[in-house]
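Supplementary Text 2. Reproducibility record for the structural model of the 213-residue chain.

All settings were left at their defaults, and a single model was retained for analysis rather than an ensemble. We include the record here because the model underlies the residue-level annotations in Supplementary Table 4.
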Amino acid sequence: MQAKDPVGQFVHDALVADRSREEIRAALEQAGWFRDEIEDAIGQYATIDFKPPIPVPRPQPTARDVFIYAVLFTALTYTAIYLITLVHAILDLRMPDPADAPYIEFRATERMRWAIATLLVAAPVYLWMSRYVHQRVEKNARARRSPVRKYLTYIALFVSSMTFLGDATYLIYEFLQGTATLRFVLKAATVGIVTLGIFVFYLRDVEYLKGEK
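Retained model, structure tokens:
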């Protein structure tokens, strides 16, 4: 326990002095501490009747966790973006619009090549890292409590949900304007499917983490 944590130190000393958790909560509330601060401090110690009080495991970020999950979510980002790019390029080639500029076909071909090259690198890296993380979590209880994993998972949920909502909003706007072509609808559907898939996958991951507590 760190000396810079006065509430945690107080809870520790109070438990050693055989004060009940209810008494500790009441005293801290009367002193002006917020309820979430109080519960976080009390939650540092197990409810086992033992002296001195037993600290519960607290997740700690490590450089290894930062590296692993940064690579994982970067590969996920590249895979999602260039999968969408590939499908959009194919639609531009297969469903040309008479209003398209002459160079659209050339640009679509270039985007396809770049997207394929990126996917051949990013997708295997993402799949391999996902498998590695899953095995690591299954074998190591500490890995399940990684705060880096938690924060990046919620960032993935936020970004994917905001992208899906923006995509749906733009699709509805185009329909209301009467300018939604079949190609546009298919492009919007591609974005929606990819982002919704990411959201559902990592939402299940969050639920799994909750079940581990």
